[in-house]
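Example with several molecule types.
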Amino acid sequence: MSAKEFLLRRPEAASIISLFGIVAFYVIFGGVNLSNLFGAASWVNFAANLGIVAIPLGLLMISGELDISIGAMIPAGSMTVAILSGYYELPIVVGMLGAIGLGLVVGLVNGILTVRTSVPSLIITLGTLVAMQGVVLAGAKLLTGAASVPLTAPDWAKMLFGGLVGGSYQTVVLWWVAFAIVFGFVVHRTRYGNWLFAMGGDRVSARNAGIPVDRMTILLFMVSSVSAAFVGMCGAIQFNSAQVSGGMGYIFNAIVSLVVGGTLLTGGFGSVAGIFFGTLTFAIVSQGIYFTQIDRNWSSLIIGVTLLVAVAMNGWFRNLAMSYAPRKKA
Amino acid sequence: MSEKNVVLELKNVNKSFGPIDVLHDISLKVRAGEVLCLLGDNGAGKSTLIKIMAGVFVPTSGEIRMDDKPVQFKRPKDAADRGIATVHQFGGTFPLMSVGRSFFVGVEPTKGWGPFKVFDRKTANEIAVKAVQSFGITRIDDGDRLVGGLSGGERQSLAIARAVHFGARVLILDEPTAALGVKQASHVLRIVNEAKRRGLAVIFITHQVMHAMAVGDHFAVLIRGAVAADFKKGEKTREEITDLMAGGESMADLEASIESSLASHEGESTATV
Amino acid sequence: MSNISSSPRFSLGSLVRRPESGSLVGLVVVYTFFAVLGGAVFVGAPGWSSWLNIAAEVGIIALPVGLLMIAGELDISVGSVIPASSMMAAVVSGFFGLPVPIGIMSGLAVGLLVGFINGVLVTRTSIPSLIVTIGTMFGVMGLTLGLAVAIAGSTSVFLVPDPFTKLVLGTFVAGMFNVSIFWWGAFALVVFFLLHISPVGNWIFALGGDRQSARNAGIPTGFLTVALYMLSGLAAAFVGIIQLMTYQSAQVAAGQSFIFNSIMCVVIGGVLLTGGSGSVIGIVIGTATFAVVNQGIFFSGLDPNIGSVIIGALLLAAVLSNDGFRALALKYARGKGSAS
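Resulting structure tokens for the full complex:
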């Protein structure tokens, strides 16, 4: 493919441009010292935690669904491992399996309700979001009497899930990169990835082509909930305690990362690389502002503007990609 | 025209939804290498009929036979497995996918082994492009192009080429030319002839008599859920066919009655809705 | 061959078909449940006032959010417009000392402006309304935060309103019922008229049913969409003003919960997320249901967090039963001989 074709056809093209644009903006208007910015781990850690949740959410979006219950699954995962292994002092493996298991159950519920009823997934996951918030809060209060539960994980667990590498980078960063590579491979190189795009493009035709649409949808919801629980779990291990709050921000942050990364809200189009860069872009906008002289209170405004500009760019590129045909020989 | 093999046959098929009777006593034969044109105005029951043939609906009574053996389609996949492919007016071609990917949805070619089977993009593109070009569409030469960028006629052609490639024996085309301009429609009609030439049984649903007469070997007219006429090419003129589709009343009579009604009400204000 | 039944007889089927039937049943069930648990206190004035106060605030926003959903759109930015407008009014009148009516006008103007921007972006670009309003939500949040700190040096600003304003916008009647309840009622009547009596209502349903057909039928779809978003912004701004007058201070962080709460009220009330169907009575009932659970939990002696679980379950039950009612209604209509 020529450079121009690359630019137009890859969903991640616009997100890479956004990334450069934001960095340039911060350098020019914010006086950022680039070596400081790129040497710092804070925004990378932020991106990693957000990114692990954003990738499966992005796959769901490509297949035509939404999952906002992740906002409650993150604290749910963290609380589960803390209560089981911190409060009840069960082995850490039990706590971790509990957190993952909870993710599997909630994802299953989300998936089954979505495929069995005609209710849109936004509403279904809104219901599970609210319900799980209550479950987490009530559970914490009833079982431990507190809204925050301490946890001390054994060394091997801390090293794998809650440690630091290369200075101040959390181990989740490595998990994020692994996620991106694995999912990137599955989505773009295997036939299952093609099925994902087919489902998002035209569900009925996909089903007629023999794709197990319902089973895949349920699987995707389970992966999404498990990933959110996983992030919460790692957080609890990292910081030696779990909080009941702290997941709601992820919902809109992840959606913005996805959309900036070229994922089409209505489904059928997107890429894992785009989601990766979109997450990076969001992280830099949101956290990179601390490295500038711009008052950090303006970060939300910059996010809003970046979102709208990036989405417009994505749409423009997509339209060009549809109409672009190489004017070669007849 | 010789008696070719009857690939698909409907015998006395009825379909009702609750108390509403949609199809009455339909008997049709579709032969290999032949185009059967199913004509009828909107609401005549054409789409219900093709849904029965495609396995979406089950007949309330009557029999479907393939290769002279009775068959039952409990779901679309059953019909598809036996080689009945439906190409709809819109949809089924995934506009945001590339030609190669869209062609092989559900049955993607892979290379590699075990859990690392990789989608074979090159092969998929090659085969897809070759298939569609063998039907005479030479403008599609890049399997990575997005389907959404193709013209309506090209998309139809791609869908038909795909059905043929995957071994369809019966090709059901649901109003393929309805949304197309003259030039694109003629492309699609040429492809229909090519499919016929390759031995497929083609069922061509339309309400445009001109297009039907360009490709049809056999015609059936549906009026209010029943076969009102069943004839071979050459047995009726274009005017006769149009009359039939309009409900039996000849166009001349209709025009005459409109004229006389206008004449007798001359001078009155014409209230419009 | 259709039998057109011309006798206008009352039928259970037609009652069941109304979108609000399901939500009414839900409200009755939920109220009975909490009445049993909460006893005389809940059924008395303290109970009524507590849930009505909540219902009024989220209800004023739920009405235009519901209209937008019927028209096929979403508005996430309400969460930021509430604090934006109350902050604007507080800064103008509290910080700068201008007369209170001017503060109120500027606050409402913020809502109208944001609504206008939302409407224009949704109609002029192909960006989905969910994304546009997430963007404006972030944008307005940032502006509110940035400007509040830049101008007033703080994230909360105080205002003491004059007695008249306080009476009309920020008082508790009989010490318990916030005046916003009456504003909610008035607003509901206006929106009811708009949606069910005036021809504009039909336009809104058409817009949500099939935008292109609506435009082809001559409905000014762009203008209508912008107007609906401005109404939504206005309502959110109004709630911000009421909060300011009631609590006499503006906080930057207030308002996020209204986003999902208003959506829940609307959906419980039978409005279809996909657009084209819903009713004002349904939205009001849905709002009441939400508020009864939200507050009833405090009178019941149960752990308050169970309330969230009940609301989540309620939401799912509501949409599933609406789904079921609708399927039933369609089947019933079919059986009467109408072909299609």
